[in-house]
Write a structure and sequence with these properties.
Blueprint: E1 9-13, E2 16-19, E3 28-29, E4 45-50, E5 56-61, H1 91-103, H2 111-115, H3 128-144
Parallel strand pairs: 2-3
Antiparallel strand pairs: 1-2, 1-4, 4-5
Length: about 140
């Protein structure tokens, strides 16, 4: 997604619940599992929730499974749409306000929303190469820890 992993998250696959590492978590530690170790099959859907305070809900659909390619560096994104909403923007409602502010930058009601937004943010832009660079850097950092 492009977020900084600053917030709690959880998801459930079948009857198994997974959560961000947290002493109060009741589900399994998500960082101790890989999606490949779960019973995934094409057509399976599950809900992933990031930052329960902002309430980002993502329906994940397993579109298919294939063998790993030996010369590929994983994880890898094969396609996407639009930019990731900014971290801590207030959830879907806050992001909707940001999109309105970008359409009406001279409206005083939206100035505060635009002040903390990165000036290079383009909501309709998606760069698969940049996404894969970010994935690889994050993956290497996690392996080094």
């Amino acid at each position: 997604m492009g977020w900084d992993d600053k917030h709690l998250y959880h998801f459930q696959v079948g009857d198994r619940a997974f959560e961000a590492p947290d002493p109060e978590a009741s589900g399994e530690n998500a960082r101790r599992h890989r999606l490949g170790s779960l019973d995934l099959e094409a057509g399976l859907k599950f809900l992933y929730v990031y930052d329960p305070g902002d309430d980002w809900h993502h329906e994940v659909t397993v579109e298919g499974l294939s063998a790993l390619l030996p010369d590929e560096d994983y994880p890898i994104c094969i396609d996407g749409e639009n930019a990731c909403p900014p971290e801590d923007c207030g959830g879907p409602a806050g992001y909707a306000e940001i999109l309105l502010a970008l359409e009406s930058p001279d409206d005083p009601a939206f100035r505060e929303r635009l002040e903390w937004l990165d000036p290079s943010f383009r909501p309709a832009t998606f760069d698969v190469r940049a996404t894969n660079r970010i994935l690889q850097l994050a993956h290497r950092r996690k392996r080094a820890v």
